[in-house]
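Recap from last week: sequence in, structure out.
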Amino acid sequence: MRVVSVRKLTALAATALLSLSQAHAAEPVKTAEPVKTAPPIEVPQHSSFMPHEVIMADDGHMDDHMCCEKEKDCGPRLGFYADYLYLRPRGVDVPFARVVEGCGLNALPRGSQGISSPDFGSGYRVGGFVGLDEGSAIEVTYTRLESHTRDGLLAPDGSVITSLVALPNTGMCAAGTSVVATANQDIDFYFIDGVYKHTFCSSCNGSLDWLAGVRYANLRQDFNSIFAVNGTTDVNSHIHFDGAGPRIGLEGEHLIGCGLLVYGRGSANFIAGHFGSEFRQVNQFSGVVGVISDSTDRIVPILDLELGVGWASKNGNFRVEVGYYVSAWFDAVTTPDFISATQTGNFTTNGDNFRDTITFDGLTARVGFRF
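Predicted structure tokens:
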């Protein structure tokens, strides 16, 4: 009986183990689900002259870690802009008359001088670009400024006005004295610029571009002074410059947030051109008193700098800018320099003689569209 019981127990145990193994094998095997990872964010190169869109965080501020262009399209893109310029010429003041008592070398000063000092003038700048690819473009710009100034001087009772711009050997009392004097001065210039621009340094918040191209420059300086006494004596000076040369520079901008930005533009131009100048003094009764002309070829460096602030729409298609602009013309022939050389007969360029600098500075305002 004991042997039979052991055998039965062994059989029951084997049957139970077999049932457990079959039940475990019937259950499906659960495998671990793969971990889903977000695709990497691709940040394309930002170009200051290409439309771009900055992704904003929930709080309305720019997210430095999530910025991209609206679409990565390397085809041509267009942009147009128009600027208003309000600039003043400097370094070209002309003292044209002085109040004196007496006549000739014995005359004593009795009051202020009459100085023709150019006022601010209005101008404009228009241009556009065509994007060649994501980081380069061709840009053409036309810039023009016209400045007109009128000054006058009236002699008090008992005094007269002597000319500071008339030829000295024409007789101070006969041709140079008056009781009233006026002076007009016009200074105009225009540029035509064509450049290739390329972005060489960029981030989500800004970019830096280099540019290279050519500039054509034209400058006119016209001066006229009239002295009225027993007839009139006119003193006229005309200076004209034309030239062209290479242009290189840098442009950059930095996005602050909410569409606000700061920008800077600078360029150096080396203009090979020609100065043509003429001085003419005419008296109402005597006719032409004296005529002097001069001609010189020079390379005139022109340095331009503009700094300012602006605002751009979210998609970059519209922007406005306000800035300060300065342009300096070196090794130029100016009206005061030319009149002085005419009076002294010294037209040499030794040292700093007959070499002057003209500057234009003031405010700019721009409206631009990009597509």
